[in-house]
Amino acid sequence: MSASYTIKDLENLSGIKAHTIRIWEKRYGLLVPQRTDTNIRRYSDDDLKKIINISLLVNRGFKISKIAALSEEELYHHALKVNSKPEDTNDRIEKLIFYMLSLDVNSLELEVESLIQEAGVEKAIYQYIFPLMEKIGTLWQANSIVPAQEHFVFNFLRQKLIIETDKLPKTDGNEQLSGLFFLPEGENHEFSLLFYNYLARKNGHHTLYLGQSVPLSDILTIAESFHFDYYFTAIITSSPKDDFEQFLSDFSSKVSASMLYVTGKEAQNYKRKHPRNTRIVSQPEKFAVEIKSLDTKKK
């Protein structure tokens, strides 16, 4: 089944303003949308691909009058040539968005692998993947993408990060710091947690990764029998501040001998005083510095 997009969807996905798209339609006939019974424009997958290719060329200095004179095949080949040249960050993110929309796993894999080869895992995620996820969140809120497209890219990136983590050297001995990584019950957005686990593993820590939606009672049961130097969690889903505060209080009172690191929007928006053994992590770079200081303290 062919997808159907509004002009606002095209604006969100291509970066070209809706009024500009209307002008180009009228002046150059670049797109010929279908119309609903109430005269609302509806665009196809092919229309979306075309406007993204046009956006790519315009951003590289091509004049719209020249682009309008190109055939469909010429437009496609010009976009391919531009894609083969050095790109800025926004260009790379737009390509990832395009592959997500097309459900093009082969191109997505090649592009992500290229980013990792060029920049390394950490920089690729800081510079490209986290901004990509922010844009996907914006597109999701605007109903410009369907759940299948979001799940496709997130599951692909999740698998890729797990593979990169498995490539890291295994920890050896009891001298290394240990951390337990989990998402609280009801939390399922685990990419950031996987990345923090990667950073810890890269720093030589022994980590236990429990993943999504782990009841606090299970964590407390584990804490009674096993010692971890720190615990790490991410809270992204919105909840009443009192619930978040209760979670911090319950955890810190039961696991007072270890540090709890918390990241995610919910944590970063929390402005009240938190327990002494709790640290709010706003950026991965700060956590990387923090865990190095923990190493120094243990030694």
Describe the structure.
The structure is a single chain. The protein is α/β, with parallel strands linked by helices and 299 residues long. The chain folds into three domains: 1-85, Orthogonal Bundle (Multidrug-efflux Transporter Regulator, Chain: A, Domain 2); 86-167, Methionine synthase domain (Methyltransferase, Methionine Synthase (B12-binding Domains), Chain A, domain 1); 169-298, 3-Layer(aba) Sandwich (Rossmann fold). It contains 14 helices and seven strands. The chain has helices at residues 7-14, 18-28, 45-59, 64-68, 72-83, 89-102, 105-119, 121-141, 147-166, 191-202, 216-225, 241-254, 265-268, 284-298; strands at residues 34-35, 41-42, 178-184, 206-214, 230-234, 259-263, 278-280. Strands 4-3-5-6-7 form a five-stranded parallel beta sheet, with helices on both faces. Strands 1-2 form a two-stranded antiparallel ribbon. The radius of gyration is 23 Å and the shape is elongated. The model has no long low-confidence stretch (mean pLDDT 85).
Tally the helices: what do you get? 14
Radius of gyration: 23 Å
Give the total of beta strands.
7
Uncertain runs are none
The succession of helices and strands, N to C, reads: HHEEHHHHHHHEHEHEHEHEH
- In CATH, what is the homologous superfamily of the largest domain? Cobalamin-binding domain
Task: Let me know the average pLDDT.
Answer: 85
Name of the CATH class of the largest domain? Alpha Beta
Structural class from helices and strands?
alpha/beta
> Per CATH, which architecture of the largest domain?
3-Layer(aba) Sandwich
Under CATH, the topology of the largest domain can be stated as Rossmann fold
Strand order of the largest sheet: 4-3-5-6-7
Question: How does the overall form come out from the CA principal axes?
Answer: elongated
Separation of the first and last Cα atoms? 60 Å
Provide the helix percentage: 55-70%
Estimated share of beta-strand residues: 5-15%
Major sheet: size, sense and barrel closure?
5 strands, parallel
Q: How many domains is the backbone divided into?
A: 3
Organism: Prolixibacter bellariivorans
InterPro entries: Cbl-bd_cap (IPR003759), DNA-bd_dom_put_sf (IPR009061), MerR-type_HTH_dom (IPR000551), MerR_fam (IPR047057), Meth_synthase_dom (IPR036594)
Keywords: DNA-binding, Transcription, Transcription regulation
GO molecular function, one term: DNA-binding transcription factor activity
